[in-house]
Amino acid sequence: MEVADRRVLRVLEAIEGDGRITQRGLSTKLGIALGLTNIYLKRLAHKGHIKCVNVQANRLRYLLTPQGIREKTRLTYEFMDYSLSLYRKVRFHLREVLQPLSVAGMQRIAIFGTGEAAELAYLSLKEQGLEPAMILDDRGGTEFLGMQVQRLGSGLPPNIDRLIVATLDHPELLLRRLEHQGIPRDRLVTLRPLSDDTVRKGVA
Description:
The protein is an alpha/beta fold. It contains seven helices and eight strands; from the N terminus they run αααββαβαββββαβα.
């Protein structure tokens, strides 16, 4: 499923859930620029998926049309298929990478990240009978899946055998940054195999 389609689905869900939501509110909810949010809304209105209603001189209200409800349903089913396929791929890859470590007695696995990708990593670990030793991110101080999130400083925390880099979008960028923070590349595990091109560039 394309990133643009996932964003469209989130826009439609947000409008359905809150008819008073503003462009700025949508921008914040989606984590994208206000101008890009405006483009998505204009496209959806042009396709007849949403309707814009003036409620004040400087305020618009967005409503889903019947066509928009059908599009949201279609994208929801597509997203479910995408998520299941993605989960199977992540689970297979992590099993291939982590099983030899488990056999060797290296079972201290940490997860870097707290988003949906981190949830996939967590579920994959649990399926293999492994418990994440730590959840890490850049800030720490929050809670994720019942665990206190720790801030990642310089280098890998003591006694951690591998760090799962829980992102699906351009993991090579995050790998570079973590390496610059003093974590050896051979201790970092991605959710999916990196492309041969990425490996040749020395990122993997």
